[in-house]
Specification:
Helix content: 25-40%
Order of helices and strands: EHHEEHEHHE
Oligomer: single chain
Function: Forms part of the ribosomal stalk which helps the ribosome interact with GTP-bound translation factors.
Subunit structure: Part of the ribosomal stalk of the 50S ribosomal subunit. Interacts with L10 and the large rRNA to form the base of the stalk. L10 forms an elongated spine to which L12 dimers bind in a sequential fashion forming a multimeric L10(L12)X complex.
Number of helices: 5
Pfam family, one: Ribosomal_L11
Protein name: Large ribosomal subunit protein uL11
Distance between the termini: 56 Å
Number of domains: 2
Number of strands: 5
CATH architecture of the largest domain: 2-Layer Sandwich
Shape: elongated
Strand content: 15-25%
CATH topology of the largest domain: Ribosomal protein L11, N-terminal domain
Structural class: alpha+beta
GO cellular component, one term: cytosolic large ribosomal subunit
CATH superfamily of the largest domain: Ribosomal protein L11/L12, N-terminal domain
């Protein structure tokens, strides 16, 4: 069996179970000749259980205009915002904090993100999550 030739790989962050063919989906996939409605149906069906989260997706587009997609874990920033109970990060992260998360919450987030991080162990993944928290103005506290 001959392998299909890949023409493009598109990465998009979409709300789980609630994607629509409007931008950003239409503008990202339309130029490649993909049936946006078909993609939206498949994506929403695959992410229905995670409704309320933002789930990045990597869409591989083939020469014959067919496609496949891989779901990624939610962005670290989204998980941190939920854990800290804030709407957005700090505009001045060094001077103005917006919330706190515990080391246990950081470990939980690192566990979720582990498949998509380039870390060998949980400790390294936790350091990456802590760095993201710092850049958002979220303090990491013991507890």
């Amino acid at each position: 069996m001959a392998r299909k030739r890949v023409t493009a790989v598109v990465k998009i962050n979409l709300p789980a179970g609630a994607a629509t063919p409007a931008p950003p989906v239409g503008t990202a996939l339309g130029p490649h000749g993909i049936q946006t409605m078909e993609f939206v149906k498949q994506y929403n069906a695959a992410t229905e259980a995670q409704r309320g989260q933002v789930i990045p997706v990597e869409v591989t587009i083939y020469e014959d205009r067919s496609f496949s997609f891989v779901l990624k874990t939610p962005p670290t920033t989204e998980l941190l915002k939920q854990a800290a109970g804030v709407d957005k990060g700090s505009p001045q992260n060094r001077r103005q904090g917006v919330g706190t998360v515990t080391r246990a919450q950081v470990a939980e987030i690192a566990q979720v993100k582990m498949p998509d991080l380039n870390a060998y162990d949980l400790e390294a993944a936790m350091r990456q999550v802590e760095g993201t928290a710092r850049s958002m103005g979220i303090a990491v506290v013991e507890g």
